[in-house]
Amino acid sequence: MVNFVLDKVGDADWDELVEAQFRSFSGEPYHDALFGFNTRENQIETKKRHIHELTESTSYLWLKIVDQDAGKIAGAAYWKIKPNYIPLNREELNITWLDSQEDREAANRLLMTVQDRKLANVKEAHIQLELLFVTPEYQRHGIGTRLLKWGCDLADHMALPIWIESSREGYRMYCSQGVEDVEYHVIEAGRFKTAYTLMRRSPNLQAALLN
Ligand SMILES: CC(C)(COP(=O)(O)OP(=O)(O)OC[C@H]1O[C@@H](n2cnc3c(N)ncnc32)[C@H](O)[C@@H]1OP(=O)(O)O)[C@@H](O)C(=O)NCCC(=O)NCCS
């Protein structure tokens, strides 16, 4: 039996984690728009962005699940914990990870549309599941669900809802943990065509009492 262990992401993990992230999201246009195509340069840029973002808040947290025997990261989740309601701001992005101006403009349209839908809906203290992925060789072993459950337990204890922008692939897993549809969107921006569901999970305070 494979020995999977949950742990915090540490300084030495970023190269492997980002490589795993790009492989997990391969062919997902939303990821291409947000992080660029899978090149060494974009992996380095993504690593810098992840590390930099952690300096913006003490309540951002990366978790990984490691295959202890192989010493490999099997999956990871990035949580943004926002225990008090502060209205979200529209963040302008300086897209440097796509080569052509056309792609940069298209990616910007896609990302701004996603952001606007979030701004219109998320008006409460909450936990945001920013990213969740499991590498192809480890999918369908319950790892995604374990990473998600960690956040659900935390959200129950903190009496906070969870908000998620779900890919098609993640949708069934989220439904199975009580995450519900808010809005479904199809976005076509240049070469980036994607569909996602904005989802929300209400906290279960009774579950927190029992745990
Ligand atoms: C979405 C994603 C995170 C799911 O990760 P995962 O580890 O495969 O998820 P789980 O194994 O917990 O659950 C997935 C399915 O495997 C099934 N499963 C879980 N353990 C299993 C096992 N031991 N044997 C067989 N199937 C199993 C689950 O029941 C679930 O089935 P369903 O889709 O029919 O409901 C992963 O597919 C992924 O990284 N995709 C690309 C990136 C992405 O879309 N991320 C989500 C962004 S919002």
UniProtKB/TrEMBL annotation:
Gene3D superfamilies: 3.40.630.30. It comes from the Eukaryota. Pfam families: Acetyltransf_1 (PF00583). Residues 49-204 form the N-acetyltransferase domain. PROSITE patterns: GNAT (PS51186). InterPro entries: Acyl_CoA_acyltransferase (IPR016181), GNAT_dom (IPR000182), Trichothecene_AcTrans (IPR052523). One of its GO terms (molecular function) is acyltransferase activity, transferring groups other than amino-acyl groups. This is N-acetyltransferase domain-containing protein.
